[in-house]
Amino acid sequence: MTKIFLHKLGLQQRVLPSYRVPFFDLLAQSCESMSLFAGQARAVEMIAGGKTQIAKYVEAQNIHLFSGAFYFCYQQNFINWLAETNPDALIAEANPRYLATPSAVKWMHARGRKVLGWGLGSPSPSFGRGVGVRAHFIHQFDALISYSQRGADEYAALGFPREKIFVAHNSVSPKPEQILDRRPQTVDRVTLLFVGRLQTRKRVASLLRACAEIESNPRLIIVGDGPERAVLESLAEEIYPSAEFIGAKHGAELKPYFEQADLFVLPGTGGLAVQEAMSYGLPVIVAKGDGTQDDLVRDGNGWQIQPEDYGALVSAMKNALSDRARLREMGKESFRIVSEEINIQKMADVFVDALNSIQDT
Q1: Which residues contact 248 (CB under 8 A, 6 or more apart)?
Q2: How many CB atoms lie within 10 A of CB 181?
Q3: CA 261 to chain centre
Q4: Could you give the domains of the chain?
Q5: What pLDDT, in 10s, does the model give residues 131-189?
Q6: What DSSP character marks residue 41?
Q7: What pTM does this model have?
């Protein structure tokens, strides 16, 4: 049964990436109405923007200040948007780098309305003045929603009441309808799949080198494009010439590649395609990151490795490919996780629970 928030919701984001649109529209269906306030990313970020169909999208004017560790963003007209939409509750990104947020929280509180913070957690700094700044920032919210259990623990470590912290597992995919019979058992050569942007932090070069060390010579399909493609293709010609570079594919174009694969491998950071791979009944090897992988990838359905540990990548791949029957069982567990536990409907339900909990106080 779909959970409902019978009030007007305002939701602020720095940017509106295309992969978040299905979730925002689903959340909007659970509210009386929902207005979304978000601006444009910097060109260097190469974030594909989206457009909602159900949530009303209002474009913010983002002012980007500095870069790297010193990056800040100020969103003009935040208060004007609040005054025009007049939401009963607000969800804002719990990121102290977004300078307009405190004023928006004060505006809501002055009118007796509640504000939820939504974020990854607070992993650093671990000492000094930074801890106090982060603790002060998150304590302005009436409750917090974390992407992961690790993030929730980090908020609690800063003194935020644990009973006011909700975990909405980060998801970009709907609940899959049915598991697919992807490959016949008679196929001898195992197929590995990578989907993502071809950039250094994805560590595709390590994946190519690891495949070259595996005696069974697995088929490797690399779906994606990016600044490192030419370098990677040159490396593949030298050490693993059978690697297949498909180029960028999106949406339904990805389906045949997921259906051909036996194992999904993401040796670097990031990776929105992990959940999609799991929805096709694939076991996964992923690099540890912001904590969302901890909830998604478990001993029953895959392996987590350190992103810079090449030896761990080789070991995990050899382990995975040593038992084809076990791989298929792990793929079934992947499917179960995204079907029953981690998908955008489950995520929306937690948001509604959190909103109702603060609305009633």
Answers
A1: 223, 224, 225
A2: 9
A3: 22
A4: 5-172+343-359 (3.40.50.2000), 191-340 (3.40.50.2000)
A5: 888 999 999 999 999 999 999 999 999 999 999 999 999 998 899 876 655 555 546 78
A6: P
A7: 0.90
